[in-house]
Amino acid sequence: MAAFMVIIGFFLLVLCVCTALLRWNEMRYRKKGLPPGTMGWPIFGETTEFLRHGPNFMKNQRARYGSFFKSHILGCPTVVSMDPELNRYILMNEAKGLVPGYPKSMLDILGKCNIAAVHGSTHKQMRGALLALISPTMIREQLLPKIDEFMRIFLSNWDNKVINIQEKTKEMAFLSSLKQIASAESSSVAQEFMPEFFKLVVGTLSLPIDLPGTNYRRGFQARKNILKILGQLIEDRRDSNESHLDMLGYLMRKDYGNRYKLSDDEIIDQIITILYSGYETVSTTSMMAVKYLHDHPHVLEELRQEHMAIRERKRPDEPIEWNDLKAMRFTRAVIFETSRLATIVNGVLRKTTQEMELNGFVIPKGWRIYVYTREINYDPFLYPDPLAFNPWRWMDKSLESQSYFFIFGGGTRQCPGKELGIAEVSTFLHYFVTRYRWEEVGGEKLMKFPRVEAPNGLHIRVSSY
Question: Strands 436-441, 459-464: parallel, antiparallel or unpaired by DSSP?
Answer without folding.
Answer: antiparallel
